[in-house]
Amino acid sequence: MPLESREYWKSLINMGLSKFLVLRTLKEGPTYGYIILKKVSEFTKGCCTPTYGAIYPILKELLDGEYVKAKTEIVEGRRRIIYELTEKGENAYSVAYAAWKEVVPFLNRIIEDN
Asked: Taking the CB of residue 16, how many other CB atoms lie within 10 A of it?
């Protein structure tokens, strides 16, 4: 995808924000993949919503790293995996939050100075 493509830049932003936004969503409490996507879309007003193809590898990576734990529930005959932040995940979110909080004012200045 060429650098002149808006989709290229949006995909880079999405990749950079996706893990943070998943952690942010799970900070509110345990939930499952579809609701995570829905809440991320609400947080960002649809601007930075990962796809289904991206969300589940992120959740697997968070699970493998023990940032989240998962349990399976059966709801109306369907299997649903509920994800919940662990203490390690809470700590990771706090670090990510601090990093983004530090960077965003600089990004805003760069954008405003353009």
From this structure: 12
- What are the pLDDT digits (tens) for 50-74? 777 889 999 999 999 999 999 999 9
Rounded to two decimals, the pTM is 0.86
Q: Which two tokens stand for residue 110?
A: 């760069």
User: Which of helix, strand or coil describes residue 111?
Assistant: helix
Cα 71 to Cα 3, 29, 41, 63, 80: the distances in Å are: 41, 14, 24, 11, 8
pLDDT at residue 43, as a whole number = 84
How far apart are the C-alpha atoms of 22 and 112, rounded to whole Å?
Answer: 28
Residue 8 pLDDT > 90: no
- For the chain, list the domains and their CATH numbers: 6-113 (1.10.10.10)
- Tokens encoding 37: 């996507």
Instruction: Render 10-59 in DSSP notation, one character per residue.
Output: HHHHHHHHHHHHHHHHHHT--EEHHHHHHHHHHHTTTTTPPPHHHHHHHH
H/E element holding 84?
A: strand 78-85
